[in-house]
Design goal:
Elements (H helix, E strand, L loop, with lengths): L6 E5 L5 E6 H7 L3 E9 L5 E6 L10 E2 L2 E4 L6 H13 L8 E6 L8 E9 L11 E7 L1 H10 L6 H11 L2
Parallel strand pairs: 3-8
Antiparallel strand pairs: 1-2, 3-4, 3-6, 4-5, 4-9, 7-8
């Protein structure tokens, strides 16, 4: 099954499931749905960010959170973050990582209600080559400076997540 055929839940303004459609149809009609993002830090406090594959339908070639993905139909946010961490960077989480905050669906998130999680890991990581071109460690100060100087190379959702995270 290709990505546009994945089944996702449509949610209302309060993040309550109201229907199920394919990812492609949901994006085409700009309907509200769900996603997760995981920020992976190392013991030195650096964050591991991914550069999205040029073949991605949204934000191709842009920098993004360590892990990001849609919550499948019938799946919880918590089980999704565990699945996506394994699929995207080969990170096997033994438990649900720390929940940081939830963003409401808006233009910057692609109309997705999004839970943001955090964990500490040194890797090693195995990248899903169809989704990620490569990843790199950055200090928080480097990411702050990057967003001030040229935010155009980072996905809008990742910009919102990082700014919200740094304001906590």
């Amino acid at each position: 099954m290709n990505q546009s055929e994945e089944l996702l839940n449509i949610v209302d303004d309060f993040d309550v499931v109201i229907d199920t459609l394919t990812r492609g149809e949901i994006h085409l009609r700009n309907l509200k749905h769900r996603s997760v993002h995981l920020l992976v830090f190392d013991s030195a406090g650096r964050v591991y960010l991914q550069k999205r594959s040029l073949t991605k339908d949204n934000n191709p070639g842009l920098w993004d959170s360590s892990v990001s993905g849609h919550v499948d139909a019938g799946e919880s946010y918590d089980s999704c973050v565990i699945r996506e961490a394994q699929e995207e960077i080969g990170l096997h989480l033994k438990e649900v990582p720390e929940r940081l905050f939830k963003l409401d669906a808006c233009n910057a998130t692609g109309n997705e209600f999004t839970w943001i999680y955090r964990c500490i890991s040194e890797g090693p990581f195995v990248l899903h080559s169809e989704e990620i071109d490569y990843c790199e460690w950055f200090t928080p100060e480097t990411v702050d400076h990057w967003l001030l100087e040229d935010s155009s190379t980072m996905a809008r959702s990742a910009q919102l997540i990082w700014r919200t995270y740094r304001s906590l």
